[in-house]
Input
Amino acid sequence: MINILDRVQGSALQAKIVTAEEAALLINPGDHVGISGFTPSGYPKAVPLALAKRMESDPFQIDLWTGASVGDEADGALVRVNGIARRFPYQTNGDMRKALNAAKVRYNDMHLSHVAQNVRYGFFGDCDVAIVEAVCIREDGGIIPSTSVGNTPTYIHKAKKVIVEVNVSQPMSLVGMHDIYEPLDPPYRQPLPITGPGNRVGTPYIPCDPEKIVAIVPCDITDKTRPLAAIDDDAKAMSQHLIEFFQNEIKHGRLPKNLLPLQSGVGSVANAVISGLAQGPFTNLSIFTEVIQDGMFDLIDAGKVEVCSGTALSPSPDGLKRFYDNVDLYSKKIILRPQELSNSPELARRLGVIAMNTAIEFDIFGNVNSTHIMGSKMMNGIGGSGDFTRNAYISIFTCPSVAKEGKISAIVPMVSHVDHSEHDVNIIVTEQGVADLRGKSPKERAQAIIENCVHPDYKNILWDYLKLTDGKAQTPHSMRAALAMHAELAKSGDMKNVDWAQYK
Output
């Protein structure tokens, strides 16, 4: 067994060190299990793998609650043995996605800032077991998380039993990077005492009654972070459009020279866009976001960032090595908080966060679909984008204008699923340009989006759609034709083949 005695303080806690297989026996059929992890960072590995192995010979199911997505050792291993009955709030695993879309797992997609409080309110039933990854454990039971915080403090707080994986692959240099604060619930809730991204308001560990800890498991399995796509010309163009947009906002007095705290969503496009800002003129930046990806390291390395607050490190494998190799530098800039704080609508509004998120598609009136392919197939989930979008100083969505070699336009007459309504979306950016939707009527928004953001192959198609109603409506839709581009994609495989003549 891996030696973790130097990471577990006190003989009483050291006496609880067991194997992953022994710990997995403490989980019962039907249990509500809350685990650490936010993106494939800081999630338990050994115990979920052992639990999946147990389920192979003793089939049963649990409900799995997380911070956001987690690695294959949890989501993948458990779903492949049909071990998950219900899952929330966000996922990115391929096997899990197939199970959701085959209706084999009941999935509740929800705003990430809401999860912890809803668990404390009792909306989902009791939390039976918390399984959390830690760097080390204090003698008083205080748990030092690793590369993410997510909903871990609340799962530990509410769980009847706590299982801790002490992962020796996570360096002790992570100690001190966390800021753990759990708000009171109504009617006793107080304002969150954060007035700047760099404020520390809590403890560097998660408080836990040592009596609740029923098992401590040694682990050396590393985080399985995902590679990020190379930064292509489209991403570079979107970054440049954003830089020019910010410069214009500064020129007109709507932003300070160091902007306002930046939030960026997860994924390759979001990472590429934020990385591009490292080449921009802005300095003394602050970050108030949920995930910290390679692009954030680029900004820090360029000397552009004063502080970077988030709930998880979510870099590429190369980015994770880069972090560990330079942890002394990055630990001075980075603060990891519970997602209830990192994604707080209250804090996004107070700090004036500039929200930059990605879309699957958006329509000509500014509604955004960030979750569903063709309206019905779940991709990942809304994540934290809604937390920031509705409450941001400026809400921005980025997306390449086309996909699948131009057969799909990311801009359509009507989105097939709405995650962010037109009321919350200020700015749309593609490689083609920027559409500023602030203060515009629906028809004006459509004109701005088609003119500035649509790929040339689809401009006339979308102009022609607008003509179907002659613009004689507050929101000029043809309900017969609104989803015709999606129908054409399903029929012929290419949206460009849509024929508006049949809808006149």
The chain has a mean pLDDT of 95. The chain is about 30% helix and 20% strand.
